[in-house]
From TrEMBL:
The lineage of its organism: Eukaryota, Metazoa, Chordata, Craniata, Vertebrata. One of its GO terms (biological process) is chromatin organization. The keyword Membrane does not apply. One of its GO terms (molecular function) is nucleosome binding. This is Calcineurin-binding protein cabin-1. It is found in: Nucleus. Keywords: Nucleus. One of its GO terms (cellular component) is nucleus. Its main location: nucleus.
Length: 286
């Protein structure tokens, strides 16, 4: 497109200057012929390509506006612009969410913002009053997770998740809390329950990622050494949370137990013991 505009300017200048020169010299004006390639026959540009580029330009301009508002802290305006792209029309509930098609061109921060909007939409519904587009919203949410964090892995991803070139980001605690609540089992598996009740290998890998970013506390905590000493019989002191210990977030209360259960039911006993001990440090009365 830039080359075409430049050529147009050159042709205009040539025509204008040629006409002026002929007028000054008093010469008879002759027709000037400029030969241009046949864009259709030469396959230089197609209507489909032009349409595609125009749509891409429109999306980029919209993203620039959203990005500007986001950086200016005008979050209500950002949500107002994004919200229409997060729901299907009442006439076509089966249609994929519109914004999914443009994910490759959306910066990671806008995908994160979409996660926030989807989270609020899903949280607004109750068990008695299910969101009318719950399935579509969950599909869109899982697409965001896949683009941002590559979860689940390519091998086990659902068919409706698409490959995109969106930039991935590091998982932070705030987002990890929501992902944990969204993907965790509805009920904690028992140690003697079936293997199918435990978490998947993909979810176990996500839990391990979350375990590496658990916020540290300066308050007293039950140490692995005390738990190990009691188990090995070198100490008669029953493990318990020390006075002044902070109550652990609900995520941490279940995180290590789920990892221990996964390894236990996959016959990886040494790893299971390690995570069971971490779980005892958090919930010694489990």
């Amino acid at each position: 497109m830039e080359q075409a505009l430049e050529n147009y300017d050159i042709c205009t200048e040539m025509l204008q200057s040629s006409t002026a020169i002929q007028a000054e010299a008093g010469a008879e004006q002759r027709d000037i012929v400029i030969r241009l390639p046949n864009l259709h026959n030469d396959s230089v540009v197609s209507l489909e390509e032009i349409d595609k580029n125009l749509k891409s330009l429109e999306r980029c301009q919209s993203l620039e506006e959203i990005q500007r508002l986001y950086e200016a802290g005008e979050y209500e305006s950002v949500v107002h612009l994004l919200r229409p792209t997060l729901c299907t029309s009442g006439f076509d509930q089966a249609k994929h969410l519109e914004f999914m098609t443009s994910i490759p061109e959306r910066p990671a921060q806008l995908l994160l913002l979409q996660v926030r909007v989807l989270q609020k939409e899903l949280a607004a519904s109750t068990s008695e009053d299910t969101h009318p587009y719950k399935e579509e919203l969950e599909t869109a949410l899982e697409q965001c997770f896949y683009c941002l964090y590559s979860f689940p892995s390519k091998k086990s991803k659902a068919r409706y998740l698409e490959e995109h070139s969106a930039q991935q980001v590091d998982l932070i605690w705030e987002d990890a809390l929501f992902m944990f609540e969204y993907f965790k089992p509805k009920t904690l598996p028992e140690f003697d329950s079936y293997k199918t009740s435990t978490v998947s290998a993909d979810l176990a890998n996500l839990l391990k990622r979350i375990a590496t970013i658990v916020p540290r506390t300066e308050k007293p905590a039950l140490s692995l050494d005390k738990v190990s000493a009691y188990i090995e019989g070198t100490s008669a002191e029953v493990p318990c949370l020390p006075e002044g210990a902070d109550p652990s977030p609900p995520v941490v209360n279940e995180l290590y137990y789920l990892l221990a259960d996964y390894h236990f039911k996959n016959k990886e006993q040494s790893k299971a013991i390690k995570f069971y001990m971490h779980d005892i440090c958090i919930c010694p009365d489990r």
